[in-house]
Amino acid sequence: MNKFEELYNFIDRAVKSRKYPENTGIALKTGLKLFEKELNEEEKASIDEFKKNLNQISNSIFSKGKFNAASLATYKSRIIKVINDYEKYGKDATKMANWSPKVIVRPKRQLPKDETQKSNSGQAGIIKNDSFHAFDFTGGVKLLIPKTPTTNDAIMDGGLKDIKVALKDFSEKYCKEEEQI
Length: 181
Prior knowledge:
By secondary structure, the chain is of the alpha+beta class.
């Protein structure tokens, strides 16, 4: 029977042998620590028991209200990844040695391009970009907001109206573009 503590040891071995990047190892251990606080003695003594009760443990953490559903889902997916990798590679040194994890390289985020389109009011332009809602005001003042379901809803509901008016007033008062002679 494999104890929960073995998952920490597995992550350490995987990082040391370059199967996981160091930051991934840290993120995986953070998920384990979060869930470990909720384990009973049987779950600490057996990875199989922990795996079997993972949904109930997750619900227990969620009911305490310290994490939102999306964050908790991320931590839970990390736990599942560790358990699956441990079961495939962590119990056998030969399998661990032959393990070649897929390396994921994510491109760095780039700021929006300066392709603006005037809004209906003519006061500000919206910069077209896939990762940000961007609003362009007089004098080079820009408001960049990451695109998420929450920010999309807030923008659609007019949640930015007061902020946009304040930025427009600020930019017109303090950031006037010099007039060409």
